[in-house]
Amino acid sequence: MDIPRKSAAKKRRIKRILYALTAIIAVAVITVGVSRLQPAVPSVDRPTLWTGTVARGTIPRNVRGLGTLVPEEIRYVPAITAGRVEKRLVQPGAQVKADQVLMELTDPAVEQAFVDAESQLRGADASLTTLKVQLDKTILDQEATLAQAKSDFNKAKMQFEVNDELGKQGLKSPLEVNLSRIAAQDAESRVGLETKRLAGSRDEAKARTAAEDEKVRQLRDAVGLKRKQLDALKVRAGIDGELQTIAVQVGQQVTLGQELARVANPRRLKAEIKIAETQAKDVQLGQTVSIDTRSGIIPGKVIRIDPSVQNGTRTVDASLEGELPKGAVPDLSVDGTIELEKLENILYVNRPVHGQEHSTIGLFKLDPDGSGASQIQVKLGRGSVTTIEILDGLKEGDVVILSDTSQFDSSPRIRIS
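The structure assignment produced for this chain is given below.
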């Protein structure tokens, strides 16, 4: 019978311990080595990249926005009087003249009011004529009375002068002389009284005539107003242009002030451009604008800047100073580019996908051989529609990736294949 020896078992136990220690050390060495390995450099296909070269020079600083062409002259035709639509004589899209009738309204109350106003005016005119005749007769009678008083005064004066002379010769008694003097004085007083009475009659005639004239004038104004209301039942365009809309139907009852139609002059258009609020702060009146209608480019000028902000944009109105291309009609969608200023002798590059004005971003600058690119921090300045100013981080001639590389933001380098 074999008896195992204690020394062999001890040797086997020592071997197992050594194997375990060796395995632990190997695992630790491998773990440390793996942790110190650098991550693999990501690779990008060259055809998917959009690059740009940093240059120095003068560039225009522009802002761009979408907009529409709208007429400069638009007339919203209101209902000057209430009524019912009797006829529609013109359809939208037709060319109309200012005095052309678009539709006819009816309102018996307006027609009756006009007839009544004319009747009242005729009555007032007749009353005025009668009054003038009466006043003229009164003044003529007063003038005749004054003339008679003057004649009586002249006779009495002559009689007094004769009696006074005869009295001095002793041929007339003092009593007769005094009586003739008193008669002359009475006649003179009557002349003065009749003169005042005539002046008073004339003043009275003037006042009464003025009052009656004012009444007639008021009635004539009322007739004019009623005539305008009656004429307003024939709704006219008001301006030469194109009838864009008619807002009512035949038989419809309309109220005072209600919009009936819209007429615009299609030959005088302007562009309403929506500019982002952050970019509109530098837009000023008189700046040059290029309006792209897709069938031609029209030059223009900024003529109005809306002070309010709607949906993050401000509306800028631009006049059209060039000849309108074919197809330039109201409500046409256009692109507007406003030139803010000229940037002289600056470093610039085409605008990166995520490049905003006055910000610092990470861009990948290509190696000289083009096989890779390193990420650098670039400080941007003033921007335009397609270009942006470089303040720091790049120099003239550097080539950078402008397309979206946000998926590589955590990588300092990329490989280009």
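Interim note for the steering committee: Residues 109-231 form a domain with the Helix Hairpins fold (CATH 1.10.287.620). The mean pLDDT is 86.
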